Amino acid sequence: MNLNTSHANHHSFILTGIPGMPDKNPWMAFPLGLLYTLTLLGNGTILAVVKADQSLHEPMYYFLSILALTDVSLSMSTLPTMLSIFWFNIPEIGFDACITQMFFIHGFGVVESGVLVSMAFDRFVAIRDPLRYASTLTHGIIGKIGIIVLTRAVCVVFPVPFLIKRLPFCHSNVLSHSYCLHQDAMRLACASTRINNLYGLITVILTLGLDAFIILFSYILILKTVLGIASRAERLKSLNTCLSHICAVLLFYVPLIGVTIVHRFGKHLSPVVHMLMANIYLLLPPVLNPIVYSVKTKQIRIRIIQVFQRRKNRA
Hints:
Elements: E1 12-14, H1 29-52, H2 59-86, E2 92-94, H3 95-128, H4 133-136, H5 139-157, H6 159-165, H7 182-186, H8 194-227, H9 232-240, H10 243-265, H11 271-296, H12 298-314
Antiparallel strand pairs: 1-2
Membrane topology: Multi-pass membrane protein
Subcellular location: Cell membrane; Membrane
Pfam families: 7tm_4
C-alpha cells in the first residue's frame, strides 16, 4: 500500500501494533485477550454484586458501578482495532471509523475523570456529614450527577471529529498506536493544526486538569475533617474508606501524566516506549480498578467470597 497517498484517495489510516516489529504482533494476542477478559469479568462482577446485595445500595457503590460501566465502555472502544491488528493482522481502518473510535476513547476518558470527581465528592460528604450522607446523595442526585458527567464529556469531545475532518491528509497515513487518538491523527495533517492544538490544550486544562485540582482540594478538606476527629481509631476508619478511591485516582492520572510527558518530551525515546505507555493508560485502569475495590472494600470482598463459596458448595 502506498503510504504517501494524496488527499483525494486518503480515506483510511494504518494502525501500528508493535513499532518496528510487525512479525511480533501475534505474541500480543494472548496477553491482550487476557486483559480484556479480566476487564469484563472484574467489572461485571462488581456490577453483579452491587445489584444483588441490598446492603450495597448506597451512593458509594452506585458511583462504583458507574465507574465499572465506564471502564468497560473505554475498553470496548479500543477492542475492535486491537483485535484487528494483533489477532487478524488487519492494520487498516477507515477514516470515519477512526474518527468514531477517537470520539468514544476521548469521551469515555473524560467521563472517567468526571466519575472520579463525583466519587471524591461522595467521600467528602460521607466523612464531613455522615448522618446526612444518604439524604444528601439521593438516587435523584446521583442520577443528575451521572447525566452531568456524561453531558460534559459529549459536549467537550463533540467538536473533535469535525476538527479532524476539516484537515487535509496528504502525507503518511500511518498512526503510531493501535487505536485512533486526536493528537496522533492530527500530526499527519499537511495543514495548520493550530486550532486543533489550542482546542486540545484548553479541553485538557478545563476537564482533566480541573478535575485533578477538585479531587486534590476535596482530599485537603477530607484530611482537615479527619484530623478534627478525636478518636484515632475513627480517624483511621474514615481514611480507610478513601483508600480504594485514591488508588483509582492514581491508576488514572499517573499513566495519563506519564503519557503526556513521554509525548511532549520523549521524542528521542523508542516508539515501543510510546506504545507501551499509551496502552498502559487505556488498558490497565479498567483491569485493576475492580481488583483494588474488591481487595480494599470489605463489603464487596465478603460478598464475592460468599458467591464463590455458594458455587463451590453446589458443585
